[in-house]
Amino acid sequence: MAKGWVKDLYGKRLKELLERGEYWEIKKLMGPTGPHAIVEGKEVIMFATNNYLNLANDQRLKQAAVEAIEKYGWGPGAVWAIAGFHEILSELEKKIAEFKRTEAGIFFPTGYATNVGTIPTLVETGDLILSDQLNHGSIIDGIRLSRAEKIVYNHCDVADLEDKLRKAHGKYNKILIITDGVFSMDGDIAPLKDISKLAEEYNAIVYVDDAHGEGVLGEGRGTPAHFGVDDKIDIHMGTFSKALGSSGGMVGSDREIIEYVRNTARSWLLSTGPSPGAIAANLKALEIVMSQEGKERVRRLHENANYFRKELQSIGFNTGKSETPMIPVIIGDTKKARELAKALFDDGIFVVPIVYPMVPRGTERTRNEVSAGHTREDLDKTLAAYEKWGKKLGII
After folding, report:
1. Residue 242 a catalytic site member
2. I need a surface site. Which of 159, 202, 332, 396 has the fewest CB within 10 A?
3. pTM for this structure?
């Protein structure tokens, strides 16, 4: 048991979180996740996962995982750097390079571990990181672990980025520009074509976290492919935990860079890897996304997202700058965002309220993540519930 004063201290802090409405009420899944799921014993239409291509419960991924466990066992035994890794990981890393259209690839146990491990290996004292204002928390933590100086540029503001590049030019050993490809709270897209042009002009390195772009944009290849700048991005970071329906993170780049990361990233060197089953499922997911079937799933995904976004707007909701299947309903009030999410859940629709500190105060919202597996009936039922509760709660 903790000392009494320690328990009291954190009990008080927990109470403050509850009073501010910033406590996460995490619900229990009671089966696989998909367009429909059983949550807390209730059947719901699922809008709270990043399972964009409906692969998380795909039979082929499950079968690949089972076969790998039968062949390689369940656990890796130790960190890869010490005990070695199963040959299937080499296959996955070759497929990552093919997917990212780079010379080489590396797999990390999680997307978070990818950013907090890779970013500090690329920069050091005397370097500068220019980071988008709305970059993901894992990027922010990776920057904090580095010894580089950091400057934040206004969200997707190319003019502000250029101004900061101009002022920094010649003052640092190297400059690293980091941006999400698709931003996880607003669903808008980084202007990678303009960013890559500026990077060439100022001889800066570009690092793109494409966790929410892979399987969504560029016929599934991601945000750099969407803009046709694959070859202009120095570091392609991504994750298997969103559209690819599995878990783990990845980086694609030149062979020398990948091997340097492998030998210096602490979150790779000091982390025991996942089960061989997860690695096999990731390999199968990439095969599907890179196939013609994958392109068709992407097409259905955008058809669903465009319909859902347009109808939400016609009802009177504010969907912000979303251009992707990540669609916020911006409410601007913590209490009403939570009330709306609860009312929708009671009606069989699972969405997540997103409040401060995840988003700035005044932009509280529900976050809706559309899937290729949602039917028009699913979308229409959800839209009807949004309209009903939006009016009852005085949001629209």
Report:
1. yes
2. 159
3. 0.94
